Amino acid sequence: MLNNTQIRYCLDEMGKLFPEAHCELNHSNPFELVVAVVLSAQCTDALVNKVTKNLFQKYKKPEDFIAVPLSELENDIRSIGLYRNKAKNIQKLSQIILEKYNGMVPNDRDLLTELPGVGRKTANVVVSVAYGVPAIAVDTHVERVSKRLGICRWKDSVLEVEKTLMRRIPEDEWSITHHRMIFFGRYHCKAQSPKCEVCPLLLLCREGKKRMKAAGKK
DNA sequence: AACTCGGGGCA
DNA sequence: TGCCCAGAGTT
């Protein structure tokens, strides 16, 4: 397992590789961010951004989303995977935000998690990106990178990964950390073809050393 | 813990 | 063609 100094080194190197790391989802306003993140589950972000942009040409506020039949909203996001669940969730979530929160997206993680289609990861993105609340959103990239490097254990749950990161990284770096790890995971430490041979973290990466050793034997 | 939803992108 | 993708809800 890596110590805190080694973790700091890893994050610095990720920052050098991807100095432009940022939230790629459209977040001009909190409500649009919620919709974008709900749509983003199991989809590529480029596609989500395209669809979200088109969506908000037509729909502006929560009341606009519940003013149309479900089938129409489904059709508007048809090019995104899991679109039936997502359309239903966006309508329900729009209604709750409108009725319970007077049209304003709550800035509380627990309240956000009560919304349909919003889990812990989505709630963390929303409070962190839209409201500047310190949080680490653990998605598949953050989880994979943390486990490969040895920041946490392989068997750890997503929540345990998040807790470990929060415990071992200074609070004022949480936000930039999850964006760095997402970029690093997506473009460098890829799920299927990690670039171990050109990785600055190879010498302290548990999985990287194992992979390079296995590749050398072949 | 495993299963399901799911069209588009990419090799 | 086959496989994967900024997850969440249900069983």
From TrEMBL:
PROSITE patterns xref list: ENDONUCLEASE_III_1, ENDONUCLEASE_III_2
* Highest taxon, organism lineage: Bacteria
Provide the binding site for [4Fe-4S] cluster: 189, 196, 199, 205
Please give the cofactor(s) recorded in the UniProt entry for this protein: [4Fe-4S] cluster
Say which enzyme class the record assigns. lyase
Q: Which family does it belong to?
A: Belongs to the Nth/MutY family.
**Task of the protein:** DNA repair enzyme that has both DNA N-glycosylase activity and AP-lyase activity. The DNA N-glycosylase activity releases various damaged pyrimidines from DNA by cleaving the N-glycosidic bond, leaving an AP (apurinic/apyrimidinic) site. The AP-lyase activity cleaves the phosphodiester bond 3' to the AP site by a beta-elimination, leaving a 3'-terminal unsaturated sugar and a product with a terminal 5'-phosphate.
Protein name, UniProt field: Endonuclease III
The UniProt gene name for this protein comes to nth
